[in-house]
Amino acid sequence: MPKGKKSCSKCGELSGPRAYMCKNCNTPFAFKPTTKEKKNTRVIRDFNWKDLQPGDKIKVTGGPYFVSHGEFIPMGYRGKFIVDSVDQNGIKAWGLDKSTGFAHIYMGRDWQNPETGVWKTKHKLLILRPKNLVKT
Q1: I want to staple 96 with a disulfide (CB 3.0 to 4.6 A). Which of 45, 80, 103, 121 is the partner?
Q2: Is the distance from CB of 64 to CB of 119 less than 8 angstroms?
Q3: 65 within some domain
Q4: For the chain, where are the alpha helices, taking DSSP H only?
Q5: What 3-state class would DSSP assign to 39?
Q6: What's the pLDDT tens digit per position in 31-44?
Q7: In what order do the strands lie in the sheet with 102-106?
Q8: How many domains does the chain have?
Q9: pLDDT class for 134, splitting at 50, 70, 90?
């Protein structure tokens, strides 16, 4: 088999490495299975961040940013966190993935700091909860 090709298990036709289906017989190619975490996690999008409890897992994006000569520089947190507590301006949490350590995730009103020029904006949040297993 040539480098950069894969063959169909049903008909043996060669296809490109990123093909999803065999172009000859329309048989789908097998891909890497999803992780156990993805299979067992439910994502909640619409919620009040002030209702978070200690121990809740959240996924965080967005947040404060700085604009310098037309270049957008993000300054907020990204990644998965475990909630420690909630205060009036945000969430205190511990990082799980690449965002290790303690963080204050800003959730207050949008405004620009006149001294630094940093725009303080809310982070975007998702709650990660385990899926409930249905007993049969």
Answers
A1: 80
A2: yes
A3: yes
A4: 36-39
A5: helix
A6: 777 788 888 888 89
A7: 41-44, 123-130, 57-62, 79-86, 90-95, 102-106
A8: 2
A9: very low
φ, ψ for residue 49 (rounded to 5)?
Answer: -65, -20
Average pLDDT score over the chain: 89
Token representation of residue 113: 């700091």
CB atoms under 10 Å from CB of 106, counted, come to 20
Res. 98 pLDDT band, cuts 50 70 90: low
Regarding whether 83 and 49 lie in a shared domain, the answer is yes
Residues 42 and 88 in one domain: yes
Let me know if residue 125 belongs to a domain.
yes
The verdict on 96 and 124 lying in the same domain is yes
CB burial of residue 22 (10 Å; 0-12, 13-18, 19+): buried
pLDDT interval class at 110 (50, 70, 90): very high
To which residue do tokens 């700085």 refer? 66
Range of the domain at 93: 36-130
- Asked whether residue 61 falls in the same domain as residue 80, the answer is yes
Q: 81 and 50 in one domain?
A: yes
Query: 51 and 110 share a domain?
Result: yes
